[in-house]
Amino acid sequence: MALVKSDNYLAQDHLLRRVGQLLAQGDSGVRYADILHSASHNHSSPYYSTPSWGVWIFQDVVDLRMFEYQARAMARAIEEAAADLKPARMGAATVQHSLYKGNITGPQTADDGSPAGFPRDHGDHDLTVLRFDRYAPDTEAGWEPLAAWMNFGQHPESLDSYDLITADSLAPLERYVERDLGATLVFSQGDVGSAEGPYDGWNRGRLDDGTLVAWAHVGHAQTERGARLLADAVVEAWDAIGGGVVPSPDDTLVPFASDLEVGVTDGWVPGPVSHPVPTVSNCRSEPTLGGDPGVPVARLPGLRTGRRWRRARPLNPIVQNLKAHGIAVPDQYGAPAFTGVHRRRGEPAAASAGGQARRRRAGFVRVRGPGRPDRELQDAGERRGGGHLPRLRLDRG
């Protein structure tokens, strides 16, 4: 199984299928169904490789040369990794991290005047790290750091206003971790849809050294400071795996192993009945029917505030009255687009979402402690006709 990270705005199945075609011509043995792809959701990277026209409005129009270039680069990386396999062991841990985390939705007022939204600290604070060590019999410990794979939700968009091509907060994050550990870091996104901030003005205070707790859209220096704090948490999880003890009872540890089962399920997750067609840039129906129209795509997704409508605060919401009379009216509407959601599970379990997933709306990497068999995964393997889970011996690569 190949864990692949790209600096794309979104993950897309079309790209992975092309990668699978290229891999079928190679010698890695990795195929389309064996790839777990994570897009960083970076807002400051070029994104010409999606055929989803809805995304073109606020990203880049598709260029097939970019599509092919990226597919070949991803396939080449997998082939090179497969050709250089090392005997290894793997462990995993989940630690809590909240400093470099915020909820961009925040507290709001609903259309009927009641409280809505989320607390600023609402989000998934689990930071999951998979640690890979290579077998090194000539060293005192017998093992050397090989790679770290992490999962955490945070928007890499703090530097987009500079109009520069950058990796945003992920560049310093990877640099810090790789310098500290001497191992490559592979980043994967978590509950990125609402994970953004803290911003200046949220009144999150200061650290003990006087540093303002604000990392989003406040310049390169603060972005790097926040990335340093997140890197410290990654190193903490890495050390916890090596020491066999997690820092808190709320954390989880999976001890090192060099012989373990790896199971994969693969499938499409359809949208709800109310939104059977994938959309982009959703607007709320209540303010529109009340005279404060929202136009999909013309306004950025999720940023429609409807301030004039909020001041009015109607006593009789139009949408609710229509529903009460049996008229079906959607709560939101948007412009049509097409994207995909990919879901994979294992032990530790990992999932990859194609868009801006939010907490409680998609599964992400979860580390389960020993003694908790994944019957759902076993059933999925049997439904696919294999009758058993595929095995991967890490001591053979």
Strand order of the largest sheet: 8-7-6-3-9
What would the average pLDDT be, to the nearest integer? 80
Q: Main β-sheet, in a few words?
A: 5 strands, mixed
Number of strands: 13
Radius of gyration based on Cα positions: 22 Å
Assign a percent range to the helix content: 10-25%
What is the overall silhouette? globular
Low-confidence stretches: 300-313, 339-347, 360-397
N-C termini distance: 11 Å
Write down the secondary-structure element order.
Answer: EHEHHEEEEEHEHEEEHHHEHE
| Total count of domains | 2
- How many helices in DSSP terms? 9
The helix/strand class is alpha+beta
Beta-strand content estimate: 15-25%
Explain what this protein looks like in three dimensions:
The chain folds into two domains: 87-268 and 346-396, no CATH class; 279-336, no CATH class. The protein has nine helices and 13 strands. It has helices spanning 13-23, 53-56, 64-82, 170-181, 220-243, 285-289, 307-312, 318-324, 375-383; strands at 2-6, 35-39, 88-96, 107-109, 115-117, 126-135, 143-152, 184-189, 252-257, 260-261, 279-284, 332-336, 391-392. A five-stranded mixed β-sheet has the order 8-7-6-3-9, covered by helices on one side. The longest helix has 24 residues, at 220-243.
Give me some keywords for this one.
397 residues; 2 domains; alpha+beta
Which helices and strands, and how do they pair?
Layout: E1 2-6, H1 13-23, E2 35-39, H2 53-56, H3 64-82, E3 88-96, E4 107-109, E5 115-117, E6 126-135, E7 143-152, H4 170-181, E8 184-189, H5 220-243, E9 252-257, E10 260-261, E11 279-284, H6 285-289, H7 307-312, H8 318-324, E12 332-336, H9 375-383, E13 391-392
Parallel strand pairs: 1-2, 7-8
Antiparallel strand pairs: 3-6, 3-9, 4-5, 6-7, 10-13, 11-12
Helix pairs in contact: 1-3, 4-5
